[in-house]
Each structure stands twice: as structure tokens, then as C-alpha cells.
Amino acid sequence: MAEQVRWLDESEQAAWTGYRQMKRLLDARLAGELTADSGLSEPDYDVLSLLNDADAPRWCLKDLGTRLLWSPSRLSHHVARMASRGLVDRLPCETDARGTDVRLTTAGRRAIETAAPGHVDAVRRHVIDQLTATDLADLARITRKITAHLRSLDT
User: Fold this and answer.
1) What is the sign of the dihedral through the CA atoms of 87, 92, 94 and 95?
2) In sequence order, what are the residues at sequence separation of 6 or more whose Cβ sits closer than 8 angstroms to the Cβ of residue 100?
3) Domain layout of the chain by residue ranges
4) I need a labelling partner for 25 at 20 to 30 A (CA). Which of 1, 8, 36, 127 fits?
5) How crowded is residue 135: how many other Cβ atoms within 10 Å of its Cβ?
6) In the 3-class helix/strand/coil scheme, how is 54-119 assigned residue by residue?
7) In CATH, what number does 32-152 get?
């Protein structure tokens, strides 16, 4: 016998619909401002910021994909486009002859260092400054809770 569907009640539906609308509007606003200010796409920024913040000078493409939650195909194609623009180098993997490593170039480092201040300002204007200290603590608690639940499903 099929399980009974637990439909959302009015308050649950309002919360879910509000979240979805906020996410779409926020993603579009931040992506648009990032591209207008720096010429980088949001995926470019994700890759460059991860490589820039990393302790190691190069990342295995597979590990980078795992960290970004991207499919191998998506990451491979995107990194190839970034390499053609001189933002990253693709190198043979030092530990796996079949693998590929990715390294931030000088141009890539310049691009992320140029883009980051404007992007952080946009995040502050559109998110952080709109919330009280209590709101921020609640948001951090809620995101940790949902993230922990979703990660537990993969173990």
C-alpha cells in the first residue's frame, strides 16, 4: 500500500514558496552583479575561489568536483573553458595517470582577487545587511541542520 502523502500545510507552503522565490531572485541578482562587475560567471567564481583558498597549489579534478557537488562532465567542460581563457591550467595528475589536476594561474588569481570585494559587498547588501544578528544565527542554525541531514543521506 502506498504511503499517504503529507501535503504541506499553509505555513509550511508559505515557508517553502518563500524560500524558493528568495533563492531564485538572490541567485539571479548575485550572478548578474558578479558578471557585470568582473566578467566572471558564478561557476567561474566558485572554481577560482576554491582554488585560491586551498592550501594545496593544485587540485585533482575529481576532488574539485566532489567539493563543488558538480558532475565530472560539467566540471571537465567548465574547467576546459576556464583554461582557454587563461584562468586555470589543466595538468596531468601527479598521483593518477588517468586523472587531471587543476591549478590557478596568475590571471586566475588576479581575476578572483579583483572580483571578490564586489561579490562580498553584494552578499552583504542583499543578505547580511537585511538580517538581524538573531536572524543570522537562525539562518546559520537552519542551514547547518539541513546540510547535516542531506550529507547523512550520502553515507
Assistant:
1) positive
2) 60, 61, 76, 90, 91, 92, 93
3) 32-152
4) 8
5) 12
6) CCCCEEEHHHHHHHHCCCHHHHHHHHHHHHHCCCEEEEECCCCCCCEEEEECHHHHHHHHHHHHHH
7) 1.10.10.10
C-alpha cell at 88: 586555470
The pairing of strands 88-92 and 100-104 is antiparallel
Long-range CB contacts for residues 116-125, cutoff 8 Å, separation at least 24: 116/49, 118/33, 118/34, 118/37, 118/38, 119/30, 119/33, 119/34, 119/37, 119/38, 119/45, 122/29, 122/30, 122/33, 122/34, 122/37, 123/30
Structure confidence by residue, pLDDT tens digits, 30-67: 999 999 999 999 999 999 999 999 787 789 999 999 99
Q: Summarize the confidence of residues 78-85 as an average pLDDT.
A: 97
pTM of the model: 0.89
